[in-house]
Amino acid sequence: MTSRTLRRRLHHGDVDGKRNEKYDASGFEGLSEPLLGSHEYSDRSSEVRTLEDIWDDERKKQQLHWTLLFSQLIAQWAQWIANIVFGSGALFGRLLPFSMTTHNGKNHRVAPPLSLVQEERLRNLKQRLEVPFDGSRVEHQDALKRLWRLAYPDRELPPLKSELWKDMGWQGTDPSTDFRGGGFVSLENLIFFAQKYPESFHRLLYKKDGQRAEWEYPFAVAGINISFMLVQMLDLQSGKPSSSAGIRFLELLENDELAFDNLFCIAFQLMDAQWLAKRASYMDFNDVLKSTRSQLERELELEDTSSVKELPAYNLLRR
C-alpha cells in the first residue's frame, strides 16, 4: 500500500513551540533548516503473526513504557531538587559552580572556564558541523554508500540516484538533496549509529517495535532532523554554549570525545519510543521531536552523570 504525505519544513519554532522564530545559521553553512517532507513510501508487506509474536511485542511495549516512565520520574525528581536549591537564596548561589542569568525569559548559565580537552573537542565538533554535504565529493559519496552497506548488507548497492534510496527513508531518488538540513555530520551520525548500535539501528530502520502508524516517519530524513535538533538544543551554533543543556554537554564531552554521536543515537531511540507512546503518525513528527528534546534536556540536568551512557534513555539502546 502506498501513502502520499504533505511536504512540510521544520522551522526552529516547530522544535521549541514558537512557530514564528527563525534559525540563524550565520557561520554554519553546513547547517540550515532541515526539511521533513514526503514523496511516496511503500509500506512493508504484511506478515503472518503468531500468538508468540504478539505477546513478544506486548512485552517489549511494557518494557519501553516502564523505561520511559522511570526516566521521566528521575528527571522530574532532579528538577524538583534543583528548584529547591536555586530558590534557597544567596548561600546556595555561592556554592554553585556556575551562575544563572536570564535573557528573554530563558535561563542561561555562565559556564566555568573550559579545560584544554574541552576546548579541543568542542573545536573539532564545530569543524564537523561546518561541513555541508557535497554530492560531488568522492569521500561524501563513499560515506553514503557505506551507510547503504551497513543498512542493507545483503542488498546490491544502487546508483547514487535511484528509487531504491527511498527504502531507507530519503525523500527522493537523490539523497544528497536532503542533507541541506543537517550537513555532513548527520550522515556521520547515521553511520556511527549503524556501527555502534546495529540492533537498534535496524529495528528503527525496519520499524520492528510496537504498533506502527499507517504513515510512518522516513528513517533517514528523521535522522537529519535529529542532528539539527541536537545542534540547537546544545547551543552549538554559538561561540560558546550558554544554555543549560549546552554547558552540561561540555562536561560530558570532556569524558567522551564522541558524546555528540552517542547522544544522537540516544535521541533517535528516544524519539521512536516517544513516537510509539504517543501513537503518532507522520504529521505528528514535529510534536514528537519537541517532546524528545524536552526529555533530553531533563536528563541532561541530572547530576551524578559523567558520560552520555549514564543517561536513563541510554538503556533503550541495543547493540
UniProtKB/TrEMBL annotation:
Pfam families: ELMO_CED12. Residues 139-300 form the ELMO domain. It comes from the Eukaryota. This is ELMO domain-containing protein A.
